[in-house]
Design goal:
- Chains A, B: Its EC number is 6.3.2.2, 6.3.2.3.
- Chains A, B: InterPro entries: ATP-grasp (IPR011761), ATP_grasp_subdomain_1 (IPR013815), Gln_synth/guanido_kin_cat_dom (IPR014746), Glu_cys_ligase (IPR007370), Glut_biosynth (IPR006335), Glut_cys_ligase (IPR006334), GshAB_ATP-grasp (IPR040657).
- Chains A, B: Its cofactor is Mn(2+); Mg(2+).
- The structure is a homodimer of 760-residue chains.
- The longest helix of chain A is centred in the N-terminal third of the chain and has 19 residues, at 169-187.
- Chain A has three domains: 5-422, Creatine Kinase, Chain A, domain 2, CATH 3.30.590; 508-574, ATP-grasp fold, A domain (Dna Ligase, domain 1, 2-Layer Sandwich), CATH 3.30.1490.20; 601-660, no CATH class.
- In chain A, helix 2 crosses helix 15 (435-447) and helix 5 (169-187) packs across helix 9 (300-315).
- In chain A, the strands form six sheets. In chain A, strands 1, 2, 3, 4, 5, 6 and 7 form a seven-stranded antiparallel beta sheet that branches. In chain A, strands 21-16-15-22-23 form a five-stranded antiparallel beta sheet. In chain A, strands 11-14-12-13 form a four-stranded antiparallel beta sheet.
- In chain A, strand 2 (55-57) and strand 3 form a beta hairpin.
- The mean pLDDT of chain A is 94.
- By secondary structure, chain A is α+β, with helices and mostly antiparallel strands.
- Helix content of chain A is 36%, strand content 16%.
Amino acid sequence: MKSLQIHLTDERIQSVLSGFKIGLEKESQRVTSDGQLATTDHPTSLGSRSFHPYIQTDFSETQTELITQVFDTDKGAIEQLEALHDVVVRSMENGERLWPISMPPDLPEDDRDIKIAKLENQGDINYRRYLAKVYGKRKQMVSGIHYNFEFSHDLLLNLFQIQTEYSDFTLFRTDVYLKVSRQYLRYRWLITYLFGASPYADKRYFTDKEPEQPVRSIRNSEYGYTNRPEIEVSYQTIDQYVSDLEELVDNGELIETKEFYSSVRLRGSDNVEELLTHGVSYIEIRNIDLNPFERTGVSESTLRFLHLFLLTLLFLDEESTDAKQMLDLGTEYNNKVSLEHPLEKTMFQEEGEWLLEKLMQLNTQLTTPFDCSDLLNEAKTVLAYPNKTLAGQMLEVMTEKSWTNEEFGRHFANLYYDQAFEKPYQLAGYRDMELSTQIFMFDAIQKGVKVEVMDRVDQFLRLSFDGQVEYVKNANMTSRDSYVVPLMMENKTVTKKVLAKAGYHVPGGKEFSTVDEALISYPIFKDSPIVVKPKSTNYGLGISIFKEGATKEDYDEAVRIAFSEDDSILVEEFLPGTEYRFFVLDGKTRAVMLRTPANVLGDGRQTVAELVAEKNKDSLRGTHHRAPLEKIQLGDIEQLMLKEQGLTPMSIPEKDQRVSLRENSNVSTGGDSLDVTEEMNDSYKHIAESAVEALGAKICGIDLIIPDSTIHGNKQDAQTYGIIEANFNPAMHMHIYPYAGVGQRLTMDVLMLLYPQLNN
Amino acid sequence: MKSLQIHLTDERIQSVLSGFKIGLEKESQRVTSDGQLATTDHPTSLGSRSFHPYIQTDFSETQTELITQVFDTDKGAIEQLEALHDVVVRSMENGERLWPISMPPDLPEDDRDIKIAKLENQGDINYRRYLAKVYGKRKQMVSGIHYNFEFSHDLLLNLFQIQTEYSDFTLFRTDVYLKVSRQYLRYRWLITYLFGASPYADKRYFTDKEPEQPVRSIRNSEYGYTNRPEIEVSYQTIDQYVSDLEELVDNGELIETKEFYSSVRLRGSDNVEELLTHGVSYIEIRNIDLNPFERTGVSESTLRFLHLFLLTLLFLDEESTDAKQMLDLGTEYNNKVSLEHPLEKTMFQEEGEWLLEKLMQLNTQLTTPFDCSDLLNEAKTVLAYPNKTLAGQMLEVMTEKSWTNEEFGRHFANLYYDQAFEKPYQLAGYRDMELSTQIFMFDAIQKGVKVEVMDRVDQFLRLSFDGQVEYVKNANMTSRDSYVVPLMMENKTVTKKVLAKAGYHVPGGKEFSTVDEALISYPIFKDSPIVVKPKSTNYGLGISIFKEGATKEDYDEAVRIAFSEDDSILVEEFLPGTEYRFFVLDGKTRAVMLRTPANVLGDGRQTVAELVAEKNKDSLRGTHHRAPLEKIQLGDIEQLMLKEQGLTPMSIPEKDQRVSLRENSNVSTGGDSLDVTEEMNDSYKHIAESAVEALGAKICGIDLIIPDSTIHGNKQDAQTYGIIEANFNPAMHMHIYPYAGVGQRLTMDVLMLLYPQLNN
């Protein structure tokens, strides 16, 4: 292939230079809390491995493999990998963890205790049995990152249009990937130097000899997971690559082409022969060790470096036209670097500096937002200071803490395990999204439903499973509801009209669209218990309640407050009783919740302030809706409320004295959420369910006022209940992680509504 | 029944005093443009009389009967009656009008030319044949208003709870309505005085004798539409009322109970005998003449007066316990008042003054917003000045204009006809609603689908037909679309992703959620043709287009403008070509529209300002979205645009010179809408249809950029088209009433989508 260097500064290339696609695979061993290989099966809560797009097992039953989708940013891939970790770790039983190092933990004495993955397909099992026989089970227990990389189509197309050597695009693209593969194999030692992270291995891993000192990467060395030296495949042309592989299989030296373990695999088709016609469309980089300092085994900056590395190799002229010579040299360099002591300088430092300079040059061609100067300066430092390599850092930590390699591994396995459970209602990688959406994504991933975030800010997801695509917003807005029903529920007047028409008890009242009209109507409501509220808003804003009726002054003020939130307001009859939220899905009440105002319970010993601080320690409490409950404040409103009870934050309430800190029961102002799904009288559930049916909704949060829930509710008897609101975007996280009572996994109900076949 | 007067001041009564229910029926004769009885059949466009809830025929084929639903305000009933008039008048053929006076127009010489209504049910026809035989066809041609009235349930219930005479509520309610009926029959002369409006009748109407002078109300007099004097029915008790009626039927004096023509009919059941068990639940007042000064035949203030009148009669003690005596007296008074000369004072003025005083007293009990003082003061004036009665006013107009009664009738028939066609895109009674909703309501009413406005501001309708209820918002949001699809379309990024994934050509681009991120990304877009726009807004706001690429300064400014409209913005590739709006419904392109910027066409004679003024005369142009097109302005932007062409508003463009006044093609800034549904190449319709299917939408406005619509469009060929937006709330009125081209009745398509059975 002729030099591409000259095209790098072409405008047509620069504008598309930074595009790419990435997909990650990450293996790791499942271990017990003691760091021993787990003896349990792959967790059943993770759905079926026969279709799971994200979570599989590789060689052994304990070797969990996480597979991301294809992304066009490093961030996207890392985020999903973060999430997959949360899902896997929280789905494992008995406190099992994931082993953070590429080299496996202590291996069992008896090989038979290493269980081959219990897959459904017999062919898959046979293949693993063959591998166990040829390489030994222990070699197969090594884990790593596979980095699938594709240049942007526009970049390759523009390059193709500019160059004059090729007239067929597919051929050009294939040769580009062959060139990059050769270059990668030639220079991959730098990756091993920077990111190698397997200095030690369990004694039982080695068969005859073993390294005499800690090294940069056992996995990438001759001790690693490699084919026998006689297995040689040419990267000169695609024809040769394919024919070499096929010959190896024909001769019985490989059982199938995927047994060929190269640091770079040419991809584009499941069947190697098809590469001849379809061409190579991406490459799979396979020599990345797990980074134990990262929960996901790989950092975003490593991915960015790899991207820049490959982009540089694309434009960099090859040092030789003899592919075999380059590959042999590359293997020699890499083997040497792999077995260097992690704290010693590499013998190829000079070539490394030259290579990093090439990366620097390419970087100057990238437009501002994609600039990687910081990253490259850091790589230069690491090249100069081997203790900053991953292997070097590992060694330094072990020395500092006097840890063995196993102890080091256990420490991080435990750390990442604890992190996964710290806030079980969040999903790593997507913590900026709404809690309900995070939990919903968790459930979908767990069950093997593919999830794509179409828009983060908008909480818009695309799910697919079994060829069936579903879009979901806010985890509760789906194709199962019709367009017009939520619009109906958004309008409180219309909702009430529809419910009243269907025979349900709703508070009487009037709607006003001008302040004057509302003010002049005071005589209608004089002396009646009323609620004044904006017509459409949904967060309890602008609502005034007058349980004993309002004076003209209070009424006028309430009208103005309500109008400040909306163009129309409602003045409604106040219904006495307790308010419950019924979450109805597909005709069935899935959760019932009682919310109580922020409060603490005295113990006769601590002050109100201390009790608040203690209650706020609950990991379910957070701020700004990042947790299912909000921390209780001690602001002006709370202090006023205390004052009315003759208390201050310094008062010590008696034992079992309940001190309220708020009048309103909103969870957002520190209120408690109590799940009462089991306890609630069925008669009210039936009222809620049939009312939601009357509205025509599939998913609905409906608020009932119930004066006495011990009495049987009756649709016709307005004394037993009243419906005050129906919510088309009902919160779900508060039901799933309530303050007290049993959590109701509503997100799973939504998932099953969309994909009932998952229930089987 | 004991006196109720004492309860009037009770708080429990006052709070519910003003509630009521009302339903109207209004008959009128269909006439030709010459004011002759129409000879055509009931219009076929009005659907079938076998189910039409609003538009029926009474006795004759020409006697159109309009029936409103039940409302709880006078305004609601009047508004619907207004709308029914628009629908009926616009549905009649050959310029037929409705006759505005109770007494029919010139009747044909031959009775056989008065056609009995061509109803489906043979029983209905037979009943009319019997009436024709017994009363003569001419008597049956009289028209009027029937006023159905029900006191609020709360008022009657509270009264029942306060009083001590009755222990059964149904019985109490029945006796209340009997009392009010007796009172109404006793004092109805005042209604005849105030609202009587049939001073003359055609000679052919009378059989033997006729009045010698103009009178207040022929219809309410002995010449009117009454039973023979010997038909007597007691209003003393419900038992007597029912048994009297049944006896009359048994004796063959009435063919069925509905042949009993009283000014008040007791209602509550189709079958009179059932009144004994179910009780009376409302009354039908039948003695209101058509008011020819009102298009609807009755004014809102008349309805308010009747309400107050009935409320007064409820609390007013009866002058006698002898019902027959009261009824006889009432009939005597009414007969006399009916035949008084309209310009003479009534002989019962004193009783009238006393009665109005009673109304005044009751009015003081009503809370502020329901106060009727103005109305009552006006009634007092009318009582003092007979020329202010309706009949008096009619006479004065006829005298002033030297019109005969027929000429008077023709004048108003023509006037109301012209009014109905002045703005055919509006629907009287609902002109404050969106045009598309008005047109949609027109279509639904025309076809006999029941329409209820659930919320005016929100354009929220409830339709019902054939037991099937449908809710519709904005005339295009229905149950046929799913919840999540419009949410998808609301988000331009998600829409593009979904379309791109499905293989459609959409402009490339990037989304930014911070100003800094967008600004720093300028190098990516430098020198490319781009569009900078807010992510979610839908009205063309905040959009900047750079067909030749943007300078850094222009780009920065555009980014800031877009961010002023939304939290996120898109910077997109600009697609060259012409933008067309495709309106796709149920998989089929129903309309294609091309919008052009505000412009005028020179005639070599008039100035730009004159051409604009002339173009603005089109009744399709209005302001503030009250018409399908907006008037062209001559403001700063337009003058600048003229200046750029070397013109001023005073310039005289050459013949056929097209002068643009705007750069943007929005209809809201005076642009023209051109329907090109027929002309558009089918290939683009198919692209639009399949793209909408890919989005999963039933109703969608999708915008295609087409560089050359004479070339066959191809989904795979990005050169032939690009999709720039999908709209979940697409405007419909501009397609129905375009500036040029054929109107596409999209509202009817929506109706047929909801009720396909209407197509049969």
